[in-house]
TrEMBL record:
UniProt GO molecular function: glutathione transferase activity; maleylacetoacetate isomerase activity
Protein name as annotated: maleylacetoacetate isomerase
Enzyme class: isomerase
Family annotation (PROSITE patterns): GST_CTER (PS50405), GST_NTER (PS50404)
Keywords: Phenylalanine catabolism, Tyrosine catabolism
EC number(s) from the headed UniProt entry: 5.2.1.2
InterPro entries, A to Z: Glutathione-S-Trfase_C-like, Glutathione_S-Trfase, Glutathione_S-Trfase_N, GST_C, GST_Zeta, GST_Zeta_C, GST_Zeta_N
Length: 215
């Protein structure tokens, strides 16, 4: 049976969707983009039949659905190994996964809209919460990257770490966090965003980015 084009349910404002878009671009995978607006709470409608957690991204491959961005990244790595995003050495692969989880478990879920809004209804309180967990995580990440980075986050090969660091850095910029505290993370962001795959995967390049905001 011929394979069908993968469908990515995504939102331009979602850092987790950003991760998957980068992976699809790096692996040269053609896919259909379907927008789910988190701003208008579209995820709580029909989309819940696709993901009961009401979260993006979701990837549909040949009629089968995968949710959770890191699970999707691991699937893409196994199904499309020609352009690898994990090192060949088992220990190195584990280190990359550790760094991914530093962001995926230690920063992103704590700064997502749901816990932020549950923590406080006050915008100042929400911002303080997001900044606290982002700076805590980035301080640890900066220390680890001092040990692992080369041109990219892990040596000189683009890996899954790079795919989670860039979207999280974008969120940090939105929070007006002083990124001079994190020179390695800042360098990674600048270096990676010069690559076409990262540029075309960025929020402003997506179909659901408002036309009036385009330069």
């Amino acid at each position: 049976m011929a394979e069908t084009k993968p469908i990515l349910y995504s939102c331009r404002t979602s850092s987790c969707s950003f991760r998957v878009r980068i992976a699809l671009a790096l692996k040269r995978i053609d896919y259909e983009y379907r927008s789910v607006s988190l701003l208008t709470h579209e995820q709580f409608g029909e989309f819940m039949k696709i993901n009961p957690m009401a979260q993006v991204p979701a990837l549909v491959v040949n009629g089968k659905t995968l949710c959770q961005s890191v699970s999707i990244l691991e699937f893409l790595e196994e199904k499309y190994p020609e352009i690898p995003l994990l090192p060949s050495d088992p220990f190195d692969r584990a280190v990359v996964r550790e760094l991914v989880e530093l962001v995926n478990s230690g920063i992103q879920p704590l700064t997502n809209d749901s816990p932020v809004e549950y923590h406080s209804s006050d915008p100042a309180g929400q911002s303080a919460w997001e900044k606290h967990w982002t700076t805590k995580g980035f301080t640890a990440l900066e220390t680890r990257l001092a040990q692992t980075s080369g041109k990219y986050c892990f040596g000189n090969q683009i890996t899954l770490v790079d795919l989670v660091v860039v979207p999280q850095a974008v969120n940090a910029f939105k929070l007006n966090i002083d990124m001079s505290q994190y020179p390695i993370i800042s360098r990674m962001y600048t270096t990676l965003m010069e690559l076409e795959e990262f540029k075309t995967s960025s929020p402003s390049e997506q179909p659901d980015y408002p036309s009036e905001l385009r330069k």
